[in-house]
Design a protein that fits this description.
Elements: H1 2-16, H2 32-48, H3 54-74, H4 81-97, E1 102-104, H5 106-112, E2 124-126, E3 139-141, E4 149-151, H6 153-170, H7 176-179
Helix pairs in contact: 1-6, 2-3, 3-4, 4-6
Length: 194
Amino acid sequence: MTLALAFLLLLLSVPAAGGRLGALAEVELRSVWLILVAFGVQVLIVTVVPSGATTVHRIVHLLTYGLAAAFVLRNLELRFVWMLALGGVMNFVAIAANGGVMPASRSALSAAGLDVQSGSFANSDLVENAHVSFLGDVFAIPAGWPGANVFSAGDAVMVLGAFLVLHAATGSRLFAAARTERPRAQAAPAVRRP
């Protein structure tokens, strides 16, 4: 939910910076179905059917990152997509190192007003003695704020990457200097001698 809210705010930042949201329709993305399936499956296992075989949920959770990676590889020529990929890799490392669950710190969960999950699959949860815990959900949007939740450094890198991708693709003022050619210095006119 927090990432979805962040991406919505990013979309709203485009017109504020002079970008054209309509330009997104001109961006040619290949194999969009990969990212749509990955997102849909994550929503399914986290929100719709969180109970069931926890091991299966964890394996499927990891596989969704494979689908997302395949999408990125098909679209590497898109400016700044590498930064989105970097954030995804950071998250994947934390999740893979902890058996298919993003490790969340107790303090971040508490600050966000979230409870430790038990008995059902959670894509992010308290993991005792977590590996690479610094890559886990150690930051929080505090309880009472819109989108209160925990998030990781990888999430922050993905949001920054999405910001750059959107603004580069829509021609916002943030990238106007890169689009504008610098005027060439003109040679002084030759002086004619009588």
